[in-house]
Amino acid sequence: MAQAIAAVIIRVAVSSAGLLAMVGAVSAAIPVMSAATSRTSPACAQSPKKLFDVAIVNGRVTGVDATLRVQQGDEVELRWTSDRSLSLHLHGYDIETNVSRQLPSVMSFNARLAGRFPVSEHREGARERTILYIEVHP
Ligand SMILES: [Cu+2]
């Protein structure tokens, strides 16, 4: 009998610990989200995500201009496709991604830094090559 009660107590302790862990995880996630939101100014809060579909064919960008322009504070999403495997690097923001014929890739970031930033292709044994510029206007 005492053993049964002990087992119940342990089970309750385990489940409440699990619940606490869940609550902890949820409350830990909330400050991150609100911090990201508060970084955008009220004027930019209404501005929708800036989406760009960038197709790379034979190592060249097609479908968009060679320079993409956004406003500082914009949420930017670059959706990459390529007919061959590439390793891409957005300078300044220092975001890297791999894209291939089978696997499109997305770079998603808040344009908090103003300036002109190259996106370059990194290839082993080859010199870095800029394929696109992103201008973030203040
Ligand atoms: Cu680079």
Short overview:
By secondary structure, this protein is α+β, with helices and mostly antiparallel strands. It has helices spanning 2-39, 42-45; strands spanning 50-57, 60-62, 67-71, 75-82, 86-90, 95-99, 105-110, 115-122, 129-137.
Distance between the termini: 72 Å
> Which of globular, elongated, flat, extended, rod-shaped describes the shape?
globular
Order of helices and strands: HHEEEEEEEEE
**Computed CA radius of gyration, to the nearest angstrom:** 23 Å
Strand order of the largest sheet: 3-9-8-5-6
CATH hierarchy, class of the largest domain? Mainly Beta
**Could you name the CATH homologous superfamily of the largest domain?**
Cupredoxins -  blue copper proteins
Helix content: 25-40%
CATH architecture of the largest domain: Sandwich
Major sheet attributes: 5 strands, mixed
* CATH T-level fold name of the largest domain: Immunoglobulin-like
Q: Which ranges are low-confidence, i.e. pLDDT below 50, for 5 or more consecutive residues?
A: 4-41
Mean pLDDT: 77
SSE class: alpha+beta
Q: What is the domain total for the residues? A: 2
Strand content: 35-45%
Query: Count of helices?
Result: 2
Question: How many E strands?
Answer: 9
Bound molecules: copper (II) ion
Written account of the structure:
There is one protein chain. The chain is α+β, with helices and mostly antiparallel strands and 138 residues long. The protein has two helices and nine strands. It has helices at residues 2-39, 42-45; strands spanning 50-57, 60-62, 67-71, 75-82, 86-90, 95-99, 105-110, 115-122, 129-137. The longest helix is centred in the N-terminal third of the chain and has 38 residues, at 2-39. It binds copper (II) ion (CU).
